[in-house]
């Protein structure tokens, strides 16, 4: 990007009718609305400052983007802990949203762990303790019956929302309204990875009570202290919320995230609203993509795959279902595909004849061929099944012990070992242990990032099997195609697209996922796959996209992605348009602060000094 290296005294490329008059007041070349925090940015040129009415309200020096980012990285460097870095970045997002996204886009690998897993886990655990600024919308059970009017308070147009009830935040359990860090973090990635306009994103956290006694006892906790509502109460609440959101924003895409039991809501809303569940479907897709590439390397055909899953919750079952769909595509019958999976939960291997009631979502993969044997521990199950694949979605850090990893290596040329639980403390094993105990044989991906490793003279790069590779493209695809729903085929298509998005040199290095630094390009490929699938399923409403070639569609997608490096061009265009008098000025909300909750006054206010 070209730096904006103007000095305070340099004149700028365009000159406003009143720009050089030190005493000019009431210039028509100003916006007739209050500046937003981003308008005070130090990279704004004088002309822009006058136009935005922030002249004199920021230091006179005019920064280049590079300088701004250098300063931010310097400040980050000074922060001692990751949670301090998280806080600094949150404040930056609130005060200069475009700078925040420039910084994030240019440093996605380094900064994602600070705004997302693992740091967001601690941020959620301490949300009420560290609370400093509004970020998102809270919908309380006490407001049932009035949700539409609460939603009305959100001051911006919305294209996409991420909703959590905080009841299963990463692998950290029920965190109540402290879970807000998750929708905020996911939506930051929507913007950084898929260029969804930050102003058009809405983080929502539902306050449906909590069963976490520590929170209830915590005087600083900012949610209600009532016990978690019943399943029936939750359903009624969600019915009202879905209707109210869609009433206000008819094209809104709604992503469910980190609910303890998300299956009933997915089943209930998936055909009626443009919604999907990230933990079941997004995770299923991202792991399928990595697995498709792992299969190419391991050479084990679908019919010979034996997958043991530690964890049979939303993510475990979601991933198993996507892999089963792939096995069916590879020629297996549904029953043969289903039989490739052995699920293990906190009570041991999931079987039809074990004691106690089996949750509905576990039935599909429940085994009936265990001859009355109940295998309680993962090691017992590994000995019994002799798996080719070991997936971890259990929230149990360290559950893939050295012994289990050694067994995987002894049984397989290239064992697939995916410890996918988040944050890092919950990962079923580290990359280092996986490499050490399988002697470098395993095909590895983890939910949270691990550092690269030197092993026998080779630099090994771990894959990150995290739904962040697909949900941005699923969301953008649904928005651009104006899909009436997000179908299973669209989710599957996102996985196929991701699996093909690797560059030849990435394939050459045996990577399972593309470099995270290329995420915006990858998201274009995923978005195109999702749109094509929506068209095939006839759930799209933007019919003109059907006539585009793939190249044309890619250009179309790119052109609609928010680019934080172009925000100043937008201001310049507004000024030029104003000078020429040929266009009306865009409302401030277009370039304002994404998370600013205070509604902007409309333009009835008279102009102030432009100096
Ligand atoms: N890498 C990624 O992109 C994603 C990772 N996840 C992670 O997966 C984990 C699970 O998420 P969900 O399935 O949504 O949670 P969940 O609460 O629905 O399921 C957890 C499962 O783990 C099982 N489990 C708990 N303790 C166990 C033990 N000692 N031994 C064996 N199994 C045990 C439970 O019985 C349950 O089946 C979380 O840590 C989450 O962060 C979730 C979604 C995406
Ligand atoms: C990544 C994610 O969605 C989770 O850990 O829940
Ligand atoms: Mg999640």
From TrEMBL:
(S)-malate binds at residues 168, 422, 466. The keyword Magnesium does not apply. One of its GO terms (biological process) is malate metabolic process. A divalent metal cation binds at residues 257-258, 279. Residues 1-44, 592-611 are annotated as: Disordered. It comes from the Eukaryota. Residues 23-34 have a biased composition (Basic residues). The active site is at residues 116, 186. This is Malic enzyme. Divalent metal cations. Prefers magnesium or manganese. Pfam families: malic, Malic_M. It comes from Hordeum vulgare subsp. vulgare (Domesticated barley). Its cofactor is Mg(2+); Mn(2+).
